[in-house]
């Protein structure tokens, strides 16, 4: 999860938000990871056997799985922390720290049987560690911006988060290795919720209620542990010898922060990096390079790029006709095919790979003449009377700049819209988004779990805290509420499809494209594990 601006392929996808999964989701700030300092450490010039090196394109935002909300950290955190369940290489939810589970009470109660596993500090994982972690993340001290969204279906979560209860009523520790979780109603997507980082377990002996900002406090159960972090320079991880799934085959993971795409590409070419997810602006360079081309592949990601249209911050967007005019004045197919080679134009909001994806749905048509008529009908003939509009996008992302500038040019030409573009650093972009201060922005959402609920109910219903568009529609809300608890997969998918069509045809947000991620993978790499979300924790990888 999590709302994102351009998810990375190495984020499984939560982002995970996602959103991953989201799914994008802290009110992300550029935090200083205290106790770690700034600047370079470790030699970046040699990629040795047993060391996996690949770049980050943005500085570290947080070491706390309860706070993560961006597209940078989830893949790193998934190597350090774990939850009860996870997605495997076949995109199936499988046991992780829960060896198995039982579902009773008509789908409302889950009983998880926790395996014998250790934290990095040597402590054995217990059911009570999960209870404590979830209550920590939902508590007022940490104030996780996402925990209530992913754990909110559990009985008593709202009361606990509001400070009206001392514990979560629906979470019961039956014994040291058995955890019972009761939901308010059957939720077919609940196990998917538990694959998001804010549900991952933390060590009570090493972590406090406050945000994890020091590697000594960043203690999980994953195959790797943090060694050192400099927020704007590098992240180092080392293998956890006592990992329950077996010691990893590599000794270290090194993630240098390299914000310039040209530097990242030259670093890969020179052998500094073993993996590189590159922007489409470099596609021609890679395809024309006889050495690099065989190392490249396109990977589909369950994520959508779209233009947020904030009705609260830009008053004309409150009028459906204005939103539809902006949508119908934009030739998204042309933008994607001419500027973002390899991407999949999006007419809907639910990506391929998600159950219920509507492959043949065309959405709102490209029709500038009809768009101008709608704008005039709304009281803005030839754009007259429209207040200045700022379109924001993520800095240091060529694809975001190209798409945003092309869209702005189209709206100026077709609607005479007084629009300007502005690049914002990731933390600033998400911080303004979280505070509903953006008027319009190019954003993305990557699945946190493979379910249409993650793209519709979670993000766009009237009561969702992640609804930053300000979209409200009673029929959309009703359809989502019904689908969220429907136990019939086919009927459930049909309900979500109806809801999706309402959101698209009322221009709740403006879809641009579904992501196809180009990646370079060095022939030195063996045992890389992937799924629809991206690259999975490095439990089997080898670097020769």
Commentary on this structure:
- With 544 residues, the protein is an alpha+beta fold.
- The protein has 3 domains: 32-73 and 213-295 and 518-543, Periplasmic binding protein-like II (D-Maltodextrin-Binding Protein, domain 2, 3-Layer(aba) Sandwich); 85-199, Dipeptide-binding Protein, Domain 1 (Dipeptide-binding Protein, domain 1), CATH 3.90.76.10; 300-516, Dipeptide-binding Protein, domain 3, CATH 3.10.105.10.
- Helix content is 25%, strand content 20%.
- The protein contains 15 helices and 22 strands.
- The strands form 6 sheets. Strands 1, 12, 13, 14, 15, 16, 17 and 18 form an 8-stranded mixed β-sheet that branches. It has a 4-stranded mixed β-sheet with strand order 2-11-10-9, with no helix packed on it.
- A hairpin with a 5-residue loop joins strand 3 and strand 4 (93-95).
- Helix 8 runs antiparallel to helix 10 (368-377), helix 9 packs antiparallel against helix 11 and helix 14 (474-485) runs antiparallel to helix 15 (489-505).
- The longest helix has 18 residues, at 398-415.
- The model is unreliable at 1-35 and 42-46 (pLDDT under 50).
